[in-house]
Amino acid sequence: CMLCLQAEVDPDLCGPRLEQEGLCAHLFCLDCFVCGHSGATINCWQWGCNRSFHLPCAVRGECITQYLPEYRAFCFEHRPQQAVEATPKKDTSCIVCMEDVDKQKCYRTLVCPACKHAWFHRVCPRGGALRAGITCFRCPLCRDRELFCLEMQILGIQIPFRRPAWEDNDAFAALGERHNRCDARECLCPGGREQAEGEGPWQLLLCLSCAAQGTHRSCSNWPSSSAIWECHGCAGLRTDSSASSDLVNPTAEARPSASGHSHGNPEAETSRRRSSIQAAEGQSHSSLAPET
Questions:
Q1: What are the boundaries of each domain within the chain?
Q2: Is the pTM of this model over 0.85?
């Protein structure tokens, strides 16, 4: 028989032997033990077991098919079991779909062999395994890859031997793109906002904090001695909220002074900010004096 690979078996167990065009198979070996229909071509790997099943019937019959050499398949009685000694706690949910899992290890419920805390349904990691491939598929909780992948392959989870699918279709290519335009209120560059040179007046400077805003050196009158520039939005966020509003104007373009500093003399700036804070504190104390 091309399915059970046995010649002398009990015909009451496997049925009569059928031969056609040089192919031989027992009648019952052609029938799926799950659905009962013919055409079952997957046999249990256990020697002496005559159960066969369709691939789509494997999950319903709690069978396991392994997608790695030697591509073995097992029925519900002879399938490999997890050797991890762990039991899910009460109200444990699947780490993938967040639905409740069974109260014990079984065909439908699996656990990570490394951390023994990540529980999930058998069907939940399949999509992630197909997309991540063998290089990126790992436990969602402890991030272990070696033990986790080996255990999942033995238990019938298909993990392709290829790089992640998102590297093939450039799904995250935009994350590596660099901002490449001048966002000054008035761009003075003859070549337009997208023109950028490595140095000189049309060198494009990106914001030190967000890197999402840029300016030509000349468009913001930025000194050639400074390679650090910050957009007015990020500069406003870093301003002390207790200071007076005249210290930073969020709508104003960030421009250096004649001395080459973006906000004037640092000592004068610090002194003015301290004076404004002290003035504000003095007003609050004076307003509380009558009540006191």
A1: 11-74, 86-174, 178-278
A2: no
